[in-house]
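Tokens for Holliday junction branch migration complex subunit RuvA. Go.
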Amino acid sequence: MIAKLKGLLDETGDDWAVIDVQGVGYLVHCSTKTLAALGEQGEGCTIYTDLQVSENDMRLLGFAESAERDWFRLLTQVQGVGSKVALAILSALSTAEVQSACANGDAAMVARANGVGPKLAGRIVNELKDKAGALPVSGGGGMGVAITPAGGASADAVSALENLGFKPAIAARAVAAAQGELGEDASENDLIRVALKKAAG
């Protein structure tokens, strides 16, 4: 699967961009926030991607930050949320705002996105409420709280701390701090060891 593209920004539209990677143009569908972050036409850019395949369609979704891609994947797990709706939410709200809305059960904030009614917004915040603390927010989110990425050693480390009795938000912050200290390639055991000291402190 294509996970990331690095090339030149060839052209853009309302909700898409073409990234030229060594002469091959990749059409990627993006949120307005990602489109704004890509820069000017002809400039170099890096975009994180997710490939969505259905019976009659195959499309590449693009994100300026891996945090936005992680939230996109989580949003599309909710019944009734397809790629277009997820991109609409990520166009209207920053990842920090989506996280805050889910954590606080603020369906009205999610309903600000185009095509998201109160009923769907309520389902999104209800289903993602318990998962909100374990996903990252983008650097410009403004929350000031480091959150661990979904999946991999960091997510396993968060689960381990939760099993030891730490609250999800505390576990997530401790593991994020540990990962910041040890680096992205840190092992689960090292993350748990350092995070335990931080959570206990």
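Strands lie at 4-12, 16-21, 24-30, 44-53, 58-63.
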